Amino acid sequence: MPAPAKLRLLEVQSSPTGERAWVDVLPARRRLAHCRVLLVAAAALCLVLAALVARARPVERFTTLVRVTVAPGDTLWALARRYGGPDCYLPKAVYQIRQANRLPDSRLVPGQVLWIPVERTRRRPPAGGVLLARSRQPQ
Fold first, then answer.
1. CB atoms closer than 10 angstroms to residue 79
2. CATH 3.10.350.10 fits 59-123, yes or no
């Protein structure tokens, strides 16, 4: 059984050379409908992103010192890599370890105690007041 034929709405348009041609009118209307759908989807996406940004809390960065005892084979570079994190710039981390421990050079002795600066992050509490929670005391 052949597929049913689609009805098309045609109109006559003149070309710049004076020739006339039958042109399908519906694609322009379909394009307009598609543009409306895309515009509504883009507006909805903007609203969702704005809500997510409004709920996001800023991150606070701070540095803590971690006490480490040097093991045989440890180097400043290995310690910097171990405690620095994935996106740590190792030369800067080695420099910070040397500064924190007042080391004149990069030589380490097994059993030596070092303080390793470690950068950490935490979320700041939401703006607009602090919520306090109390636990019930057994009576």
1. 20
2. yes
Helices 76-84 and 90-101 pack at an angle, to 10 degrees, of 110
Domain ranges of the chain: 14-54, 59-123
Spatial distance between the Cα atoms of 114 and 66, rounded to a whole number of angstroms? 8
- Give the predicted TM-score (pTM) of the model: 0.48
Note the helical H segments in 9-118.
26-55, 76-84, 90-101
**Tens of pLDDT along 32-84?**
888 899 999 999 999 988 888 777 767 777 888 999 999 999 999 999 999 98
Rounded Cα distance, 34 and 25, in Å: 15
Amino acid at 82: R
Per-residue tokens: 112: 């030596």
d(CA 96, CA 92): 6
